[in-house]
């Protein structure tokens, strides 16, 4: 992930960049962390031509929006819990309101609405960056403290056999 100009760097932001670097899918799509603050996360994605569903229409595939919402939602879990722990997406429902034009960057604004010891409830809006037009909304639940590989912000985790 690249660090946008003018963004204040805090421990939460540093952790967010470390997390996003560990998720190759988000890194390969070019997702950027814009802000992390008290259960809220904003991520940015600049469209690339290979993301278009149809070359001639220049509309971004809905799967790219889903990936962006899932990544922002996962970071919102950490921002709401104020700690790192293994998480897993349990369920995500996306409502696509209009096509995402490939002419503008996208913003994902995710909010942790409620936390229990085991589940986090997230809402995410996907918008055009320029005119802030709402393109899609997502509601998701994430399992917290899942078993499996531990997330280590300082380096690569142990590989499992």
Automatic annotation (TrEMBL):
Residue ranges constituting the Thioesterase domain according to the UniProt record: 64-133
UniProt-listed InterPro entries: HotDog_dom_sf, PAAI_dom, Thioestr_dom
Keywords: Hydrolase
Molecular function (Gene Ontology), one example: acyl-CoA hydrolase activity
SUPFAM superfamilies: Thioesterase/thiol ester dehydrase-isomerase (SSF54637)
NCBIfam families: unchar_dom_1
Protein name per Swiss-Prot or TrEMBL: Thioesterase
Naturally occurring in which organism (per UniProt): Halovibrio salipaludis
């Amino acid at each position: 992930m690249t660090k946008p100009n003018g963004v204040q760097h805090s421990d939460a932001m540093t952790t967010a960049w470390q997390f996003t670097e560990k998720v190759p899918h988000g890194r390969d799509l070019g997702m950027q962390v814009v802000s992390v603050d008290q259960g809220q996360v904003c991520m940015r994605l600049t469209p690339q031509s290979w993301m278009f569903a149809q070359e001639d229409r220049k509309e971004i595939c809905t799967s790219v929006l889903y990936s962006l919402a899932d990544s922002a939602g996962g970071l919102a879990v950490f921002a709401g819990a104020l700690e790192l722990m293994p998480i897993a997406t349990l369920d995500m429902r996306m409502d696509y309101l209009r096509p995402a034009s490939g002419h503008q960057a996208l913003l994902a604004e995710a909010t942790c609405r409620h936390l229990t010891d085991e589940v986090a409830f997230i809402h995410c809006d996907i918008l055009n960056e320029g005119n802030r037009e709402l393109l899609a909304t997502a509601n998701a639940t994430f399992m917290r403290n899942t078993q499996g590989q531990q997330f280590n912000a300082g380096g690569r985790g142990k590989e499992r056999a």
